[in-house]
Specification:
alpha/beta; binds calcium ion; four-stranded mixed β-sheet; single chain; 23 helices; six-stranded mixed β-sheet; disordered N terminus
Length: 538
Amino acid sequence: MMNKKTRIKKGISIVLAMGLATGLVGCSTGNSSTEKPVASNAPAATPEPKKLAGSLVSEKPLDLTVHMHYGDRFAFDNNWAVFKKAGELTNVNLKGTGQSSGSKSGEMFNLMIASNEVPDIVHGFRETMKTYGPQGALMDLTDLINKNAPNLKKFMDKDPDYARYAKAADGKMYFVPYVFDGSGVSKGWLIRKDWLTKLGLQVPKTYQEYYNVLKAFKEKDPNGNGKADEVPYFSRDTSGIYDLLVFFDATYGGDLTLQWAESGGKLTYGPTQPQFKTAITNIAKWYKEGLIDIEIFTRGAKARDVLLGENKGGSTHDFFPSTLNFNRSLATQVPGFEMAVIAPPQNVNGKHVEATWQQKFGNHGFGIGAKNKYPVESIKYLDFWFSEEGTRLANFGVEGQSYTKENGQIKMSPEVMKGTPLENMYKFGAQHEFGYVQSLDFTKLVSTPESITAVEDYSKNQYMKKPFPILNYTAEEKKKFDTLSVAINTYVREMVQKWIMGADDIEKSYDGFMKKLKDMGVDEFTEVQQSAYSRYMK
Ligand code: CA
């Protein structure tokens, strides 16, 4: 009745799994249309180590359950070609625990933790992993890596910042984050060039000119349908609102990844600066005038596809390669469509400033669940993704499917290059955000020449604000920082949303806001950040 081959079933309930002859692994509920159970008529022969020995991490096929849902839209798919291939190469197969139907990654993660059914492998957001790891949900990987993960160890020895970034406040490492090959320019400003031309407008050079252009987009019907349905400024992330702060020399500073205001070595929490009020007042005005997507706080990740696809979106602040790709993918659908990169419009101080930058390390990665019975195999599996073979697989997908090789050079398949390459890669399970080194070669292969030029221009002209360093906190600092940061940033974000959407008037509530920040401990929050920063700068 059982498979001849020894499928190792774990996770939810070994007893239950034994009772199901067909062996539906995990508790996959969503995605039933595309997800195949591991059926008893699967290839009967037990794969022997033979020529795959080099990358095998388990002698017998081993199934490990995985929780992976991130960015409010990506769920682990058992049919991803990349992970199936990794299964062939390592003998370890990840089986999703059925998160595909939801759209709130954070909530789903919390539910998973609360259920007390932490799977073998856990994919999660940086701060979440660093919070739940020390609470006992995840294993400390330090020793496991030292003993069993030569590729990862080699990488970590070369770049000590990686461990600094990955470690939780208790000094232990609970997840293996994603890595970017190369850092520097991340996002920039893009605008509908064809609309500028149509309305006889110049490329905006200052933020006031930018405002005027958005205004014209709203009022002069550049899409020509007779309706004021244009959405002049939009973003596929709520951070799109904060991206506008740069025009007013203001900064948010709410997250590790965003700038704190710095002057002469002294840090200030952005929202307490006077220019923050000015910025929000102005942005609220823009919003009221219909220049900012009315749904900017809720539209979500698909905003760019939807608004550009419907020929309504006018300008955004986003990654160059993927945004410029719409010039190719929408060429037929929206005749004349041309999204172009512009220099950051000059801010109130007359400076062109780009405040985002490409971090070296990504926000997400895999960890190992505390109840995992195969920690050694699991870490070896995570290590596979840092091997040459694993790196190629994670970046380019499976040869013959997403790419071919010509004269030893990788060439992405037409299927990948059609539309938005990165989106297409996701469907293969490639280019997702987990622990491996994302290759600049991939980015170059799928980027348009304009996007490569844009990145070079932004670098050459030194628009970039100096990246804020990744700081190390003592355990005590970290504890304070995390508690204060969650409370304070949540409050600020709530207020910003109210002010911008007009549910509250910043003129009336600003003093109360500042007082509340004091009461919530913003001074202590700043002190903690300052002490870590000063130590770093020494
Ligand atoms: Ca219109």
